[in-house]
Amino acid sequence: MNxxxxxxxxxxxxxxxxxxxxxxxxxxxxxxxxxxxxxxxLAFYANRENHAWEMDEYRNVxxxxxxxxxxxxxxxxxxxxxxNEGEV
Length: 88
Known about the structure:
By secondary structure, the protein is mainly alpha-helical. 62% of the residues lie in helices and 5% in strands. It has 4 helices and 2 strands; from the N terminus they run ααββαα. Strands 1-2 form a two-stranded antiparallel sheet. A hairpin with a 5-residue loop joins β1 (54-55) and β2 (61-62). α1 runs antiparallel to α2 and α2 (24-46) packs antiparallel against α4. The protein is elongated and about 65 Å long.
């Protein structure tokens, strides 16, 4: 079991048993949500298929998913760290 899974399970157990220590569970859940948002962004940019580009019959480049995104997913993940609203 990795540490992140361990933290998720601990947080779930705390919620189930009603354990509250000065907002600790809420803070952990907040941090986990930030990590999940960043993981989604990293997965998108790491996916090789999102980088593959082609040309049409007129030799124009067909934009890749990365080109179409233009960094929006990354900016959302970074913004989420500051305000947890993901505003770009």
